[in-house]
Amino acid sequence: MEGKRLDGKKVLIVDDEPDVLETLGQLLFMCDLRKALSFDEARELLEREKLDMAVLDIMGVDGYKLLEIAKKRNVLAVMLTAHALSVEDTIRSFKNGAASYLPKDEMAHIASFLEELLEDKERGGHFGSRWLERWGEYYDKKFGPDWRDEDKEFWEKFQYWI
Q1: Of the N and C termini of the chain, which has fewer Cβ atoms inside 10 Å?
Q2: How many domains in the chain?
Q3: Residue 40 belongs to some domain of the structure
Q4: Is residue 93 part of a domain?
Q5: C-alpha dist (Å) from residue 126 to 9, 22, 70, 84, 100
Q6: Does 150 reside within a domain?
Q7: How far apart are CA 1 and CA 87, in angstroms?
Q8: Is 147 exposed, middle or buried (0-12, 13-18, 19+ CB in 10 A)?
């Protein structure tokens, strides 16, 4: 089943930029995609459809409110952002129930990230340890080596928390 976890999965992608939705559509061609350009469109799809995953932008579509809805509907949610890429927003996303938090400049690899999340979910594992493994170095370069000092307690528990 390796590499095939996304095949046919019903995935909602939400972004207020049509070109981002188009790119995500191409990258996630193996999924049964639902696309939304606005909060209202996304909310309606989250409430009406049975979805496996949701990829949510933060800015422009009220991604945190959509995350709240996704969590209530038991939809695995991933935050994908450019403008809200910060340690604070990363922590806020995870504390509010996101399964992962990804920078848009790494969007080309979204299929493998989502595959990993599904693999972890199948194994009953924690998403946190793999996220730190994959993104720790990226965050070190982007925010400096002390970025975890902002909320040490959160990051110490994080790998076991999600």
Answers
A1: N
A2: 1
A3: yes
A4: yes
A5: 21, 31, 19, 24, 11
A6: yes
A7: 34
A8: middle
Instruction: Report helix, strand or coil for 4.
Output: coil
Q: What CATH number has the domain bearing residue 111?
A: 3.40.50.2300
User: Can you tell me the distance from the alpha carbon of 113 to that of 116, in angstroms, rounded to the nearest whole number?
Assistant: 5
What is the amino acid identity at position 89? D
Which of 88, 87, 47 is CA-nearest to residue 65? 47
Range of the domain at 42: 10-161
pTM over 0.85: yes
pLDDT one digit per residue (tens) for the chain, 162 residues: 445 899 999 999 999 999 999 999 999 999 999 999 999 999 999 999 999 999 999 988 999 999 999 999 999 999 998 877 889 999 999 999 998 899 998 999 999 999 988 888 888 766 766 788 888 888 999 999 999 888 888 888 886 655
All residues at 6 or more sequence positions from 98 whose CB lies less than 8 Å from its CB, including other chains = 67, 77, 78, 79
Pairing verdict, β 53-56 and 10-14: parallel
Q: Determine, yes or no, domain membership for 1.
A: no
